[in-house]
Design goal:
This protein is mainly alpha-helical and 177 residues long. The chain has six helices and four strands, in the order βαααββαβαα.
């Protein structure tokens, strides 16, 4: 069912489509415009927000998708219906129900999980580095001074990473209760 009056969208989306006159764009390009206007924002949250808006406009027939061999290169275009219906910005006090609290929570969980994975990879790298310094120390004792300081630095880094991993896991466990 088509809206009879202009479609309400967030101020930022309105500015991008109307003031900046964005047309013939990819999801990445819209996300880049969105994050530029909003400023410091979680990239996962920004991607979900932008993609949700694209799907909404596409479902209403206001955008059409031009398929490409690469999913990242699918382009979206404004249709004649886009110009017929139009967009208007929501009042600043009006709640955007498309961005629910559960989305914010899943965004936070994703951010924590991503951070945890990165720290775990860093820890494995640091431990392998320490182990290699020990192997080098055994096979090249003449480099003892250089190797020992590097080894100690690597072990300290491993300890810090382990502490960060414990902290992130603690937060995840607390949020899951």
């Amino acid at each position: 069912m088509l809206p009879k009056k202009p479609l309400k969208v967030t101020q930022v989306i309105y500015e991008i489509f109307i003031h900046d006159n964005l047309d013939h764009f990819t999801v990445s390009q819209l996300k880049e415009s969105y994050t530029t206007k909003v400023g410091d924002i979680d990239p996962v949250y920004a991607r979900k927000t932008v993609y949700r808006q694209i799907l909404r406009l596409q479902k209403l027939g206001m955008l059409s998708k031009a398929e490409s061999s690469s999913v990242r290169e699918h382009a979206y275009h404004k249709t004649a219906l886009f110009y017929q219906i139009g967009l208007i910005p929501k009042d600043k006090n009006e709640i955007d129900y498309s961005l629910t609290i559960s989305d914010e929570n899943s965004s936070t969980e994703t951010l924590l999980e991503d951070r945890l994975k990165k720290r775990e990879v860093d820890l494995i790298t640091s431990l392998a580095e320490s182990e290699e310094y020990m192997n080098l120390f055994e096979s090249l004792p003449e480099l003892q001074d250089e190797l020992q300081s590097n080894y100690l630095r690597s072990r300290e880094c491993s300890s810090k990473l382990l502490g960060q991993i414990k902290a992130i896991k603690s937060i995840i466990a607390t949020r899951n209760k």
